[in-house]
Amino acid sequence: MWRNAAAKPEYATEDIAVWWDMNDCPIPEGYDARRVRPSIEGAFKKLGYSGPVSITAYGDQTQTPAHLLRGLSSTGVSVAHTMSESTSSSMFSDMVIWRGHRPPPATMMLISNQVADVFSWDLARLQQHTKYNLFLAYSVTSHIWSVLPSSAEWLWKELLMSSADEKVISSKLRAADFYCKSCGYQDEGVVKFRKHLSSRDHAMREIRNPCDWQLDPITRMWGRNYQAKPEHATAKIAVWWDMKDCPIPEGYDARRVRPSLEGAFKKLGYSGPVSITAYGDQRRTPDQLLRGLSSTGVNVAHTIPDVTYTRMYSDLHKWQKLNPPPATMMLISDTTDDFSRPLAFLQQLTKYNLFLAYSYRPYKMSILVTSAEWLWDSLLADTVSETRTHFLQRCSEEGEESTGMFYCKLCDDCDCKNLDDFRKHLSSKEHALEERRFIESKQLSEYEAQLSREASFLNVNYRFSTESSKMHIYLSDFSRKH
Ligand SMILES: [Zn+2]
Ligand SMILES: [Zn+2]
């Protein structure tokens, strides 16, 4: 189970806003509705949060008994009527409005079972930009690995049973508002509210207005290429390039890769130092290309296809440790969910500036929020004449220093300064053994994954360790430390 982290000082006394789906997480039979708020606040207090808490309970309130509505309202819990199908979208749009009024630092809490399925894509994108703290509560534990890092999570029933903050119970709170999301109605009294819900007007409106059950993902409208913000303009740029997804085109001079990238960055106002590492099965890459890359200061890394993502990922993480933001990371890869979801998770914690390039436009928008994206071919084709001079200048200025290194990412401690040593290593017996070991362990983990699928079908707990699940375990560990 998730270990809840103590409040960081910047959030400890700030606002906490709670959006609560009463359908997913109902008030249990016989439970006093007036205890909901003090229980929630008591749980927050245990972690060191003492800021003002606003709570709104969403659901089909025609089904909620009057005494529960009264109990909630009397303890300052707002009640919102929604048609069941539109509860999530209503919660989400209210959350977006709240974010518009209340800049971070502050804490948001979702009490819902729909977080992984409904909220996570847009919320994970929003969270890559802004520093809101996130709490979650649910009645059913999701089996999907969540892309949203939270600082605290609770099971709904345990949350309600947690020792209530007695101060809240004794203090007099202003009675909260009642809303009807179908009609835009707002009032204070429970009697009037119930009368509204049973009115003909209300019924007609719910029939006439088909409910918007889908979220309105506000980040979908965000553009692609932005000018550099001042803090990024001269900061470092690190590039991890998957040569299998985005190869050097036939007949293209490898020495032009770096100047083409730097030219594209410059157009957007980025002029910081650029480091590039090219990943791929380098036994198959012609010498001429490797020499061309290395001579322009591009590092070359040998991997095999199945481990490229994890090697790029762990190198990215090592780089992050040495280079705190502001700085820019760029991925040249047709990023799959396997890669982009863990990175989106990490980005919500670290908030680097991010670029992407890919060989084709993804058919759906990535969960990663970027400040610039390019098609690989057009990135290489662009700005050549202008960048060529830039590149020549660089070479004459920096001379030997601009030579890239050669790494074997399968063997430990294989960093070569020149191509001949690298080639010698790649054709060595030691390397062949190591590569064979990787392929065998991959076959084994595929076999284990299959076992695990069968085990889950039989409802047996079984842990396997593929490269990607290792990444997820590592990430949840990472988020706890942050
Ligand atoms: Zn209404
Ligand atoms: Zn090797």
UniProtKB/TrEMBL annotation:
UniProt xrefs under Pfam families: NYN (PF01936)
Gene: LOC104720886
Taxonomic superkingdom: Eukaryota
Protein name listed in UniProt: Uncharacterized protein LOC104720886 isoform X1
Organism: Camelina sativa (False flax)
Residues annotated as domain NYN: 16-138, 236-365
InterPro entries attached to this UniProt entry: Marf1 (IPR024768), NYN (IPR021139)
